[in-house]
Amino acid sequence: MDASFGPEQAARWIAVPGPADDKYSRGVVGFVTGSARYPGAAVLGVEAALRTGVGMARYLGAGRPTRLVLQRRPEAVTAEGRVQAWVVGSGQDPDDVDELTAALRERALADPVPTVLDAGALSFAGRATGTRVLTPHAGELARLLGRDRAEVEADAAGAALEAASRLSAVVLLKGHTTYVADADGGLLSAASAPAWTATAGTGDALAGILGALLATHALELEADPGIAAPLAATAAVLHGLAAERASGGGPFTVLDLCAELPATIRSLLAG
Ligand SMILES: NC(=O)C1=CN([C@@H]2O[C@H](COP(=O)(O)OP(=O)(O)OC[C@H]3O[C@@H](n4cnc5c(N)ncnc54)[C@H](O)[C@@H]3O)[C@@H](O)[C@H]2O)[C@@H](O)CC1
Ligand SMILES: Nc1ncnc2c1ncn2[C@@H]1O[C@H](COP(=O)(O)OP(=O)(O)O)[C@@H](O)[C@H]1O
């Protein structure tokens, strides 16, 4: 039986900065995302994280995605340094990244902080040393489990739970209803997104939102890694509500969704 997770629950998981905060105490999210083949995914993740609210977004990658990230978001920091959470794999094929990106990916996986494993990093989940949150769609989860996509779609919640238990991870399975399963058999579900959300790049934005939420809850996650599951469900709710605002009943682009994140969060905080 899953617990449906909505705006009321999500509002509890937004870190509001206080007068004593600075950019580092708010949290730094690091990205090793994008590639020569998919540079745009790097831009979308960073954009989404900054719009969700974070002390700093640090982007590490090859020249082209780095230039594109900076062009869109000059506030992104492209120098190495400490982070409180990583987002790895969006816009990457597991065996088709340049040497620099592969080395950065290894360093991120070896860093024992919470890590979002998306797209091309899903198959490296076993190597991640921090709390892992996987963000597959049904096709990716089917590959991870060695099943058919149709089988996963027929029992999405069951497949997410199986993967979470097998990989000792939180698994956020994307779809019209998004399921968040944890390794202890906990299951949350969020269904706030319109079907217009099924457009290329929305998953890259979701990974960025989640990275920002993990980074801004670093201390709480250290004390209780179990909160990664409600934080993942919060990311799905924010993403879905921002998509709904961007859509208004029609099509929208991923940057439109990102642009709606601040107003979505304001409205959740206002209750
Ligand atoms: N703007 C960007 O840079 C974007 C990058 N993306 C990245 O693209 C990579 C692949 O993600 P996917 O979600 O496409 O991976 P999938 O596992 O869904 O698909 C893998 C490949 O199978 C093929 N394929 C599968 N179903 C197909 C269909 N019905 N029609 C045509 N071709 C089909 C495509 O060639 C695709 O590249 C990931 O690294 C992802 O992060 C996507 O997020 C889209 C946007
Ligand atoms: N029919 C649908 N209704 C609502 N949301 C959807 C639907 N299909 C996909 N989504 C959402 O769109 C996003 C797609 O992510 P993903 O498949 O990773 O795309 P991409 O890799 O192109 O970024 C996910 O957040 C998913 O939950």
Automatic annotation (TrEMBL):
First-tier enzyme category under EC: lyase
PROSITE patterns in UniProt: YJEF_C_3
Cofactor: Mg(2+)
TM annotation in the entry: none
UniProt entry keywords in alphabetical sequence: ATP-binding, Lyase, NAD, NADP, Nucleotide-binding
Catalysed reactions, semicolon-separated: (6S)-NADHX + ADP = AMP + phosphate + NADH + H(+); (6S)-NADPHX + ADP = AMP + phosphate + NADPH + H(+)
Every YjeF C-terminal domain range: 6-268
GO biological process, one term: nicotinamide nucleotide metabolic process
One Pfam family linked to the record: Carb_kinase
Role according to the record: Catalyzes the dehydration of the S-form of NAD(P)HX at the expense of ADP, which is converted to AMP. Together with NAD(P)HX epimerase, which catalyzes the epimerization of the S- and R-forms, the enzyme allows the repair of both epimers of NAD(P)HX, a damaged form of NAD(P)H that is a result of enzymatic or heat-dependent hydration.
Subunit: Homotetramer.
Family: Belongs to the NnrD/CARKD family.
Name of the protein in its database record: ADP-dependent (S)-NAD(P)H-hydrate dehydratase
Organism: Protaetiibacter intestinalis
This protein's encoding gene: nnrD
